[in-house]
Amino acid sequence: MEDIRDIPFFQTRFCKTLNKIQKFIMFVLSCTVVLFVTYFVLARYIFKVDVPSFEELTTIIIFWLYFTSGSYASFKRTHIQADIINLLKNDRIKRLVRVISGFVSLVVWAIVMYLSTDYMLWNIKINAVTNVRRLPMWFAHSGIVVGFILMGLFDVVHLIADIKEYRQLRREKKLVEEE
What we know:
The protein is an all-alpha fold. The protein has one domain (4-178). It is built from four helices and no strands. The longest helix has 42 residues, at 137-178.
């Protein structure tokens, strides 16, 4: 399934709302980063005023921006990948490889989900904070966890659609063979 509009889950009100929230977060955070960088460059290099917490604030925003964008790319299936699947000629084999790839992605997702959650919980446990503003680090790292949760959700939905499509192609091949 190349077009996500063909996947029923992506047409639900929940998913459409989630998609709008992701777009809104990406827009607001992108604009915020641009404004922050502009402000800090002007302050530091034009007005010669040091702004010591620039890196802290920007890092927190970028964590959320990066992982929200990653989950959005996972939703759209537009994330960067070395996609050699399209080079295959046989559609059935192409779909099977996509299913296997989906399972491997979920295994990797489970590992990084565990590690990122563990890291965020560790930050809460030790009460880690930034150096200047004393902002809680768990908030920045929770963006990683939320992003991975959404990536996993969308990857599962895509995998289910790929499995259905692979099964459909197998059924069609059997019908052709029986004729």
